[in-house]
Amino acid sequence: MTRLKYCGFTRIDDVQFAARLGVDAVGFVMTRRSRRFVDPVSAAALRDAVPPFVTTVALVMDDERDYIDEVIRVLRPDMLQFHGDEADDFCASFGVRYLKAVAMGEGASALPRLRAYPRAAGLLLDGHGLGELGGSGQRFDWSLMPTDLTQPLILAGGLTPDNVGEAIRTARPWGVDVSSGIETSPGIKDGAKMERFITAVRALPSA
């Protein structure tokens, strides 16, 4: 079964609805440069609305160590998700399991970067270009999804309720991650889109 993460939450009602739908993980964007930014205290209030057995993920991007330490202390996320130029040593140094996002906007030339994070719990392949933020709705060539890596691969970028089925059939990812594809505006989720998205994912046969 394809695992499912909804990301970029800013409202408690949206978090609760996503959990009722049955998502596996919810993500909070903690980097200040994002339009979906939530501060650590606000994110902690969102986290408190998450029921058991739903993973909470804090997204950062080239943020200072002291700030990431604050995020961990206040939010207590289950996982970190790094979206910048952070090295494997840096990502692993916080003592929290982490995902590493790799910008696939350059196509096949981005593939070598996937091998630079041996300690990542999983790799998130996103459609944006190097140095850009995720959540942009950009997609990449799903056929580039590698098949020779041991880490779980998560597909992101440009996914919508209408194309996620095709994306999963093409890329065969361990999981999918969506933000803009289930929104009415950055950080404001659309309940109907959230429901349609998970229905499309769950309708696919298990591998």
TrEMBL record:
Enzyme Commission no: 5.3.1.24
Coiled coil: none
UniProt family annotation: Belongs to the TrpF family.
Catalysed reaction, written as an equation: N-(5-phospho-beta-D-ribosyl)anthranilate = 1-(2-carboxyphenylamino)-1-deoxy-D-ribulose 5-phosphate
Transmembrane domains' residue ranges: none
Enzyme class: isomerase
Involved pathway(s): Amino-acid biosynthesis; L-tryptophan biosynthesis; L-tryptophan from chorismate: step 3/5
Keyword Ligase annotated: no
Keywords: Amino-acid biosynthesis, Aromatic amino acid biosynthesis, Isomerase, Tryptophan biosynthesis
Record-given protein name: N-(5'-phosphoribosyl)anthranilate isomerase
Top-level taxon of the source organism: Bacteria
UniProt entry tagged with the keyword Repeat: no
One term of GO molecular function: phosphoribosylanthranilate isomerase activity
HAMAP family: PRAI
N-(5'phosphoribosyl) anthranilate isomerase (PRAI) domain span: 5-199
GO biological process, one term: L-tryptophan biosynthetic process
PANTHER family registered for this protein in UniProt: N-(5'-PHOSPHORIBOSYL)ANTHRANILATE ISOMERASE
